[in-house]
Amino acid sequence: MNDLIHLIAITPWAIALVKIGVVLVIMLGLVAYTVLAERRIAALIQDRRGPNRVGPFGLLQPVADGVKFLFKENVMPAHVNKIYYVLAPTITLIPALLTFAVIPFGSTLGGVPMVIADLNVGVLWIFSIASLGVYGIVLAGWSSNSKYPFLGGIRSSAQMISYELSMGMSVIGVFMLVGSLNMTRVVGYQHDCWLVFKQPVGFLIFLVAAFAETNRLPFDLPESEQELVGGYHTEYGSMKFALFFLAEYANMITASALMVTLFFGGWQFPFIGFAPNHPMWNGVLHIGIFFAKLLCLMLVFIWVRWMFPRFRYDQLMNLGWKVFFPLGLANILLTALILTMQAPR
Amino acid sequence: MENSLFYFFSVAMLSCALLTITCKNPVSSVIFLVLAFFSMAGLFVLLNAFFLAAVQVLVYAGAIMVLFLFVIMLLNLPAEEKRHRGWFGGAASIFVMVALMLELSFVAHHEKLASSPASPGIDGTTEDVGMVLFSRYMLPFEVASLLLLAAMIGVIILSRKEKK
Questions:
Q1: In what helix (H) or strand (E) does residue A109 lie, and over which residues does it extend?
Q2: Does the structure's ipTM exceed the value 0.85?
Q3: Given A129, A138, A161, which is nearest B73 (Cβ)?
Q4: What is the pTM of this model?
Q5: Domain layout of chain A by residue ranges
Q6: What CATH number should be reported for the domain whose range is B1-83?
Q7: With an 8 Å Cβ cutoff, is B63 touching chain A?
């Protein structure tokens, strides 16, 4: 163990690689089991049983699904634009995984900060990388060269551009209070009081925008089955199709992690805060707290999906531009006013 | 390490820019332009200007180019068959090139730009950029915002439905 710590201390590259590897494995594992959780919770809500045959309580279902996707025949329609058709699922997945890099998922473990890259522009990194995810979807819709995927791609890009704006507006209030874009500082600021209590409007906007950005119900217009068959992934099959789904769930995880960090105090225990008296166990505990909060928000995502009907497209656009965008601006103005009044003269 | 990264990003940026204007397929052009913006963000990171790098990707790659792609898809542009180049277009582009080179060399000469990468103490943080933007470059900043406002009003007027 000491040898390991020594090795890590002299090679910051190695430690970064280890962190990236562990986070990637946890992310993909979470994605696999979120799919299972979604199916089981959907069954619960709809008073059915859900997948419960593979392994105890159906716990091995993700393995079965993965094997199925990998070994399915890989059909590529003749009318597609081959390069972009193959690239699109990857382009969708990579930003979804990259955004997690700046999120602090724990305090420290053996003296090592539990964040892959502690950038001083952390949240800008998240927004800039997340805004690239739309390319994959647009290219998938365009390269499939058929009507339904095309319409899905168009809808998706319009929706994501619209809601990105509200999302960006909603977090500005947070950073005005914290005075930094660094995620670790944002967590440190919430030592006494979670930001969700100081920025309730910001949180509300962020939550709704997160549903729109991840293309989840009630905003899953880009892939609405009744009108668009499957939307942008209609022409995809086997593992390429699975990559789109991985991306959707990875985006959900990142959005939840972001909400935990920005509004729910990150890895801190509610209302007690840091107190790192035992470095190792506290580190483990903090990581545990972070993931517990993360899972709670993921449950909200799943729960909402099976409770609400889909919006109409014009309703979606009106809501984004005429309600949440002005609301976000008003929130910034209000925060600025309160900060100015509180400032010492 | 920094030198090799600089050459990597520069070569990537220039070749992507070249591919942007030589590609026949408009969607490929957009994608190469996005890659060029990415390489430019990489250059900003090498200069410790993290804020500029993030904003470069966020604004240009994430917002403006998505809109470009959107419009190209909606117009459903076919790949170009053959290019028509008149003497006027050539002359105009040479004129613009020369003007741009003159302007750049003028600025470089007068501002005495540092030729080396950023000094280690400087960090392109959000605070620093904000301070400079609202003190030294206040006027250009406000003029640029006025320009954007004018463009925005223009768009609203153009897309407004006529009421009878």
A1: strand A108-109
A2: no
A3: A138
A4: 0.82
A5: 73-342
A6: 1.20.120.1200
A7: yes
